Amino acid sequence: MKHKRVLWILAALAAALVIIYLVIDVGGHWDYALPRRGRKIMAILLTGSAVAFSTVVFQTIINNRILTPAIMGLDSLYLLLQTAIVFLAGSETLTMMNKQLHFVINVGLMILFAGLLYKLLFRRENQNIYFLLLLGIICGTFFQNAASFMQVLIDPNEFLVVQDRMFASVNNVNGDLLWMAGAGMIAVVWFCRPNLQYLDVLGLGRDQAVNLGVNYEGVVKQLLVLVAILTAIATALVGPITFLGLLVANTAYRLLPTHRHGYIIPAAILISCIALVGGQLLVERVFTFKTTLSVVINFLGGIFFIYLVLKESRL
User: Which of 89, 111, 169, 239 has its CA 20 to 30 A from that of 233?
Assistant: First the structure.
């Protein structure tokens, strides 16, 4: 009952923030304000759900509560793609490109990269999840350096276009992208639904899961594909928010001290929505768009990350 009560409180808080965001300072211009704010809220809810869901699943698989899917290098790959388009074809190509096509290309290339990573990882039976982490760190560092190299060479005016893509934004999300992102997320979660029932067992560790009869390699492989696709969709939709997954997942672990993912995942999703809607309210109403949503989230998440590292070092 305690866990359900916490979930209801989080749901009520998330709903209250959403309503406040939709109705605050409308001034009677409902026809103009509601569609635009509704589009932003949809983008926020989809992104928050995808990041929270993928982070909890990823941390359960690797049995570590500090690492997040960003460690696989998908955020860095996204920035490399934006920089490469401007470097090779100019900033006009990026700004004039059809948004649906741009979204599909970004998601497709990130999924392709994740697929190559997993194929390399599971090509041999003895490879383990820590090899994936090492490979992800190496690829992420390579992508960052390659993007930095191209950013140094491009025109300063074109760099401003790339810089704008380096920060998450829900202000210019196309309504058609929301339907594409939502449909993609539902499809991949539905496809991997049979494997989600093993998350509680996977949380016990590889040896215990194998002893309990779980096809560990097969289940983990499909769940990693789920993580990669959700991360790719969220990043391509609004941009990279590096510390969001770390922040919301660890807050959920502390609010609900249980191993049951039936409570942890909904709690992480609700906390993610609260953090993003609250952050967007701060950006629009307090900072008057002088900063971005990712700066607010990464500032709070970075402090929380340092706290977690210091706490773990004392154990």
Answer: 89
